[in-house]
Specification:
single chain, 434 residues, mainly alpha, 0% strand
């Protein structure tokens, strides 16, 4: 059997296990271990299972992931999300689609303190949806705004998927994090513009809030932004200026979140326990996926699939841009079966040699890859943000939420197209890094 056929059979088995609801980390571990046993024998399989899990997670750089998760949980416990939404409401509430804009504003701000979108969607559903319902917003518009803006959590740094991508490709974590800054701003501004234009053309979707906020109160509301400025500036500023590595900057951000929570008098034992528990759960999940992916990747390399797949792309008579577009397009169907970490750890080790051989900038490609993963968080049938939103709003159907997310998927595709045409939007800021 050819290496490509063996790899295809392995992916089929992996998808079958996922359809049986076996967790992705265990699915990759089982298929990888079984494949090594059948193709390389029990001695090699035993050695791989004893050495690979340790090597997969024994990395100082990986310590940034639990730190960023904890920072986001502590910031959420300190009420940062609520303050951001309040600021956005007072500044934008009177504009067409103002409450939806406030949701995007809050998501963009909270994304600067967390590397995940799931918690953001859950928090904004609790905070923003009742307000939009109270003012008579179209429910589809409200759900789309929360699900779509929630994806900003994995693009605007600190981003956990970006950290994992950097580790997998052996790139600078700081550079890949900085690469998401300008695209993240462009994405947020595009979402704001979409809401404003759509609600201007159809005012019935989003009645303008009747309460007029005095200018002095708008200015006072800006104090809710200082926490984001401190955390984002502390993390990204220390990386950009070369004062700290990404892992050290994550620790600085975590300490900053603790100090902010203490100053706000929200640093209570219940909040600390909840933040620590949630951080440990998510970290364990990510590490288990890392272990499973490492075993599965070893199998793909040893059976010859990885080299055969890379050779197909390199030997094909296609332009560099065509290869990039084709590799990015693969993430749309992958998102139907795999979660964020699974997609990165499964595909990037295969795609990276192709990128290096063709001279594709890994920072540029990584940022677009993360946006494609954002799209998968909204696409059926396994859009994670949609399922989280459904869990928070049981009276809305999955079909309704998926339909509401479609315009936001097109916004993200538009941004990817923009980055394809203008790569400097991604690599300009990392290239200035000291």
């Amino acid at each position: 059997m050819s290496p490509l056929a063996i790899g295809l059979l392995a992916f089929t088995a992996l998808v079958f296990l996922l359809l049986l609801r076996v967790p992705i980390g265990f699915s990759m571990l089982m298929v990888g271990a079984g494949g090594l046993l059948m193709t390389k024998g029990p001695v090699f399989a035993e050695y791989a299972l004893s050495a690979t899990p340790y090597s997969a997670i024994y990395s100082f750089t990986l310590a940034a992931i639990p730190m960023f998760i904890l920072m986001g949980n502590l910031a959420n416990a300190a009420g940062v999300t609520t303050e951001l939404y309040d600021t956005g409401y007072k500044l934008l509430g009177r504009l067409p689609g103002g409450l939806g804009m406030a949701t995007v504003f809050a998501c963009a701000g909270f994304a600067a303190t967390t590397g995940s979108s799931v918690g953001m969607v859950a928090a904004m559903t609790r905070i923003a949806l009742p307000e939009m319902d109270r003012y008579g917003y179209d429910r589809r518009l409200s759900l789309g705004a929360i699900a779509g803006a929630g994806t900003l959590g994995i693009l605007i740094p600190p981003s956990i998927p970006a950290v994992m991508y950097a580790i997998t490709t052996e790139q600078s974590v700081g550079r890949i994090l900085l690469g998401g800054v300008i695209p993240g701003i462009i994405m947020a501004v595009t979402m704001l513009a979409y809401l404003g234009l759509r609600c201007k053309l159809n005012p019935k979707l989003a009645p303008v809030a009747s309460k007029k906020i005095p200018l002095c109160e708008k200015i006072r509301s800006l104090k809710g932004v200082w926490t984001i400025a401190v955390l984002f500036g502390g993390v990204i500023g220390s990386i950009y200026l070369g004062w700290a590595t990404a892992t050290e900057a994550a620790a600085v951000g975590c300490l900053g979140a603790i100090i902010i929570a203490a100053l706000k008098r929200t640093l209570k034992w219940v909040a600390i326990k909840s933040a620590l528990t949630d951080s440990v759960k998510m970290t364990c999940m990510i590490m288990m996926i890392s272990v499973g992916a490492a075993v599965f990747q070893l199998f793909l390399m040893r059976c010859g699939f990885a080299s055969a797949f890379s050779g197909f792309f390199i030997g094909a008579n296609m332009s560099k841009m065509s290869v990039v577009i084709l590799m990015l397009a693969i993430y749309i169907p992958l998102g139907m079966f795999f979660d964020t970490m699974g997609m990165i750890l499964l595909t990037v080790p295969i795609f990276h040699p192709i990128m290096m051989n063709l001279g594709i900038d890994p920072i540029w490609f990584g940022t677009m890859l993360i946006i494609m993963i954002q799209i998968s968080l909204l696409s059926p049938p396994v859009g994670l943000n949609v399922f989280v939103l459904k869990g928070c709003v049981p009276n809305s159907s999955l079909g309704q939420i998926f339909a509401a997310s479609v315009p936001w998927m097109f916004i993200q595709i538009l941004v990817v197209a923009l980055l394809l045409i203008f790569p400097q939007l991604v690599i300009w800021l990392p290239n200035l890094m000291k």
